Description:
By secondary structure, this protein is mostly helical. Helix content is 68%, strand content 0%. The longest helix has 38 residues, at 6-43. It comes from Cotesia typhae.
Amino acid sequence: MLVYSPTCSVSINKLSFCLQRLNVNIKQCRYKHRTLKKSYETLGLREDCEDEDLRLAFVHLAKQYHPDSGSSAADSMKFSEIESAYRLIQRERSSCKEDNDSLPEVEEFDIKHTAPQHRHFLAYDTGIGTPSERQRRHTKERAQKAVDNVMEHRLQKIQAAERNTLVGMDKSRAGDIKTRFGIDRLVEDLIQESMNKGEFKDLPGMGKPLKDRASAQNPYVDFVTHKLNEILIDNGFTPEWIQLSKEIREETKELENDLTAVRNELGPAPLSFDEDKLWQNALKNSQETVKNINKKINTYNLLVPILQKQMLLIDLNSIAEKVIKKPPSPFQNKKSRDNMTVDNNSMSTGMLDLLSWVFDCKKT
Length: 364
């Protein structure tokens, strides 16, 4: 006779719930496997392909179907499908790798040396023979082992230098670089590939501290103007107010040089009537230059971003007073005296010629 038991009913309910969960998990696994298989088919790869083959296939298809590639096969929908498939495969492989990394490491307690009870000789156990023979044989074997280790180290160094991708790197180092999306991982792979090739070596400014952009920025200039000026300076251009400042200094210096040249042609102070007339004519001719310089100074004062950098208008009288107080150059004085001597000689010669002509006229 069957008897109803509440404990049996609870066990049946738990078993049915577990079967339902198991059925759901099986369906999810089947769907996941189908989706993953379809992703591999989209990229044209097998499920056991290497990470490098996966990356190269994605790069090739992305260049072919990217909307901005300019090729005839460009298709945004196809590119989106390829990118989704690549991200799904990368995510699945990353999760599998993380699961494997999370497993505890099992230490192998194996004997990596020959136990003493299994050795024929405790010293120089390299075979039979006298102790001296075994010692010589042991020395030769140690030397040969050292040579083999050196060669193996050199081969590993050469292989590390020729390594181009993250796939060939050590697993622990490859696991240090983890990105969220496939495109980011692709960019990271390309950066690491360039670093392994040595393309980032011997760059200008290598080993130097970065520029402190915050302290270099003028607080009285907005950020957009500062960035525009920075781009222009980096490309060899200068702001207008700096160019104006340079022109004002050069033209003012040229004006002073012209007045100094006129002053050197004159005699020492006080000036004579003729010399003063020449000096006033030189000042009159320089008024237009002073007017142009002052116009540039006004424009410069409107453009300069710093108040302390503004300039005062130049005064022709103050410049002339400063120049006239300077004694004339000795070389210029000598040149002026030579010119005056030549003029006097020419005048004397002209007077003699005039007198001889008058005398000849009277004789006739």
